[in-house]
Write a structure and sequence with these properties.
This protein has 143 residues and is mainly α. It has helices spanning 3-7, 18-34, 39-53, 58-67, 72-83, 87-100, 103-119, 136-141.
């Protein structure tokens, strides 16, 4: 969710540096490596998989592709879609989405996630002006 749209403050800007690029790649790699044992890692990956692959919310995949992230409105649409599912529908969607992903799909997802997150980095931003450290994962690694 784009917090900045609500607050008008720049909370999620991070400098385009090799350190941040490596952090993004390493964090994404860790999610892929631990998804079968770590429900949080799996949840992060499922957000991306669902936005990219579920026809009912294809407009969100288009927004993500065009803008590199979901707007506040897009994030709210995604939230409403998910909470509108019954528990059994949500469970089935998660199981089917993850089971359907081939190794090629996962490699593509990794590349897409890392590219989208890296493109959110701000060129020429001084490191002292970076956003809130506690929001890095939210700002850089959510759809």
């Amino acid at each position: 969710m784009n917090i900045e749209e609500f607050t008008g403050e720049k909370l999620l800007e991070y400098p385009e540096t090799e350190v941040f690029r490596e952090w993004i790649a390493q964090r994404a790699f860790t999610w892929f490596r631990t998804a079968q044992q770590d429900e949080h890692a799996l949840g992060h990956l499922l957000q991306w998989m669902i936005v990219i692959s579920v026809p009912d919310i294809a407009h969100l995949e288009e927004e993500l592709r065009e803008n590199g992230s979901l707007s506040a409105e897009g994030s709210l649409d995604f939230y409403n879609y998910l909470v509108g599912l019954s528990p059994s529908e949500a469970s089935a969607l998660a199981r089917q989405t993850y089971a359907r992903a081939s190794s090629d799909d996962l490699a593509d997802l990794y590349n897409r996630l890392v590219t989208a997150a890296s493109e959110r980095l701000t060129p020429d931003l001084h490191p002292n002006d970076e956003g809130i450290a506690a929001l890095r994962q939210v700002g850089l690694l959510t759809p």
